[in-house]
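Complex record, two chains
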Amino acid sequence: MNADRELVDAVLADVPGAFVRLVRAHQNLCRHLIQRLVRDPEDVRDLCQETFLRVHRTLHQYRGESALGTWIGRIAWNIAVRHLERKRIPLAEPARDGRPELLEQVADRVDVESDAIDDEATALLHQAIERLPPVQRAVLTLHHLDELPVAEIAVVTGLAEGTIKSHLYRSRAQLRQLLQTRIGVCP
Amino acid sequence: MNLPTHRDESEFSNLEWHDQERALLAERQDSGHHEDDDRTLEYRRIAQALREPLPDPLPRDFAERVARRVVAPHANAREDFDRALVSVLWLTLLVSGIVYAARSVGSWWQTVAEWMPAHGLTSPWLFTLLACTGLTALLARLPHSGHRTRLEATPSQAHAAPRPRP
């Protein structure tokens, strides 16, 4: 936390290179979050840039109550969610009626006899992850790839911890169900 | 924001949740598979897929580009100040000229009136025409002080610009 405060103070004092260091330190989290919500690479770059420009404008408001990464993640989340809302893309899973389950959405292209069954399973999983609703994709990535605990994801997204746990639990259970159905056995 | 509430409490199994989290930790620590049951193995495979790097990384110089965008407003502010200073100097010069002309207009006009008949310029309209032409030519030689484009053209905009014909 002290390192965050020092970096923020350096940026606010216009120390040369400080803002570049800040962007480099947090650009991966920002990209993962936005990419999982938005997907289009050009939009992702634009929204990441917009995030850090806003971070620079509002950095004096950072009080150090949470980690700097969490604070930046919250800004990135708000920007990406507003982008999705403008494009009328649903953020989370709608009611199950009339919507095909993840299982039906993923193409049946896994050959269980294949020697490369691991690669096939991984490809199937990636395909299925891409089919998840934006919020579930983002929450899974923040927890697994960026190693954020549930409490921090709750701060970033503004959702309740219970909701985050529910998203994680259901998404992973769905992915497991898909593996069992398509692959059948676990090596 | 139309996000769901925690509506699946009844479906939530603590045991399975702990298996999911144990698989995640095992993948992070890259520990062996020898004590894992089938369910944990399946969740480890899922955790492995979720830990793979995402495609389409940001450009290598992304941080520098953003920093340049942040610095740009300061540069623009300096340019604005320079432009304002030049305008003030021109205005001061113009006002000084008018004041000087107003104070010495009597003797100046007398000189002109004496000079014109001597050179065949008897009509004041002809003199006015010459003065206007001279002033226009002088103004045309002044440097253009219009606003510059503030932002660098993006590569796509640069491609969109019309090319000069050979």
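Note: Chain B has six helices and no strands.
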